[in-house]
What does this fold into?
Amino acid sequence: MPTNYEDRNYWHQRFASETSFEWLASSEQFLELFALYLRPLPKTAKILHLGSGTSDLHNHLRDCGFSNVTNVDYEPLALERGQELERKRFGDVKTTYIVNDATKMDLPDKYRVFIDKSTSDAIACGGHQAVSLLAEAIRRHIEDDGLWLSLSFSPSRYEGVKTLFDVELVSKLPTPKLNPYEPDIYYYAYALRPKP
Ligand SMILES: C[S@@+](CC[C@H](N)C(=O)[O-])C[C@H]1O[C@@H](n2cnc3c(N)ncnc32)[C@H](O)[C@@H]1O
It folds into this structure.
């Protein structure tokens, strides 16, 4: 990733024309990777989709019956795109949309589940402290029995947050190859649980 992926202006310019894009994996793939964690949850569980961008993950969560989903992004255009995608799919808007910087999150609620599909990767471009700030912000807003479900391209994304979270590598998602001689490259699915 180029280093300006942490820069809000980059995303503002990008979302001026981008209406729909999925980083690393489709929403279906993401939900399948984490099905064992999501299926047992009550449908009223409070879910915060962090750095929602122009992903349609909130629509898929709504399709699964989750009724308490919040999309957060620091770029207002991302939330506009999310609302457009939801209205196009369902004809109305039930997801909550909040502009907030994930590294300084200041929200009135706590959440059972944080979902991050490559958002920590973008935030990590802001330097070594950035992912720690993200983890501290999530720790302040996560319920005691909460989960942070993350898909990242980095095998060591959460090495620095183990004082705050137990980090479990759920699975490795092989990336598509253009020819069989290419090396195996994976994306990493993590489940993080807050330490008491
Ligand atoms: C790599 S994209 C991932 C988008 C989406 N999750 C997906 O899978 O397609 C990163 C997203 O995180 C947002 N983002 C980056 N840094 C952020 C921050 N500090 N706070 C909130 N959102 C941020 C960007 O605006 C962008 O929408």
